[in-house]
Amino acid sequence: MAGEALIEMRGVNKYFGQLHVLQDINLTVGRGEVVVIIGPSGGGKSTLCRAINRLEAIESGSITLAGKPLPEEGRALAQMRADVGMVFQTFNLFAHKTVLANVMLAPVKVRKKSKDEAARRARELLDRVGLASQADKYPAQLSGGQQQRVAIARALAMDPQALLFDEPTSALDPEMINEVLEVMQQLAREGMTMVVVTHEMGFARSAANRVVFMADGRIVEDRTPEAFFTAPESDRARGFLSKILKH
Question: What is the total count of domains within the chain?
């Protein structure tokens, strides 16, 4: 079971112009917990995920990490982002650097690790995501699924307290999705704190401690996967699941 609260959002509001994209969001993620956020497009899922490490500033409310408010800017913000890794839809790897160099870069620059230590750890992590043999290749030589696994290794290289995933498989071909989800399943089993925005219902069912269903900028349901998938309480969730689970 999850330990103490690692991420807490209280009364969080966010606007894009007139659009109220996050409406009074209250969410707590315990240490070691896997929270999967699902819901229709445009419901605020990605914005919520991005607000947790301040890629999106909020208008009101509070977000804390391990009891401390998110820093506004500068070095403290960079440090916090090192503690909360993020994996995006697009892999954002440096095309001109090898896979190994991509994974080593932040630990050397931000964590001030020696190159030898960073390289050793990078190789360990590439092995962990099944890519030890690809260390000297460049991103363009890899498949999308392989690139996304490199991106996960890169996030892990910072020894983060939590990992945020913003639709990590949505840009992948279907046959590559499972190789990424398997790595994420393994991280969940190892106790990594994870907030995952995804359309992959199988992952939500099998890996999540809690499923958060969002629509129209609000959290509509926040329940165990079993309770949510077998007996959703809201009409919105029932409608969403009937569309998604038909096929």
Answer: 1
Token pair 């913000």 is found at 77
The strand pair at 5-16 and 19-30 is best described as antiparallel
Per-residue pLDDT tens over the stretch 32-69: 999 999 999 888 999 999 999 888 999 999 999 989 88
Q: Which residue ranges of the chain lie beneath pLDDT 50?
A: 1
Q: Which domain holds residue 36?
A: 5-244
pTM reported for the whole predicted model? 0.92
Interstrand relation of 34-38 and 60-65 (parallel, antiparallel or unpaired): unpaired
Q: Which residue has the tokens 């620059």?
A: 109
Closest by CA position to 138, among listed 87, 101, 172: 101
Q: Report the alpha-carbon distance of residue 151 to residue 122 in Å, rounded.
A: 12
Classify each residue of 188-221 as buried b or exposed e, where b means 16 or more C-beta atoms within 10 Å of its C-beta.
beeebbbbbbbebbebbeebbbbbbbbbebbbbb
Amino acid letter at 121?
Answer: R
Q: Say which CATH number the domain at 32 has.
A: 3.40.50.300
Please name which of 123, 125, 100 lies closest in space to residue 190, comparing C-alpha atoms. Answer: 125
Quick: pLDDT tens for 153-175.
999 999 999 999 999 999 898 88
> Which tokens in the block code for residue 14?
């966010």
How confident is the model at residue 1, as a pLDDT? 43
Question: Within 10 Å of residue 9's Cβ, how many Cβ atoms?
Answer: 21
Strand order in the sheet with 60-65: 19-30, 5-16, 60-65, 68-69
Kindly list the distances between the CA atom of residue 158 and the CA atoms of 69, 84, 180, 192, in Å, as whole numbers in the listed order: 20, 9, 19, 13
- Which residue reads 């009364």 in tokens? 11
pLDDT at 92: 86
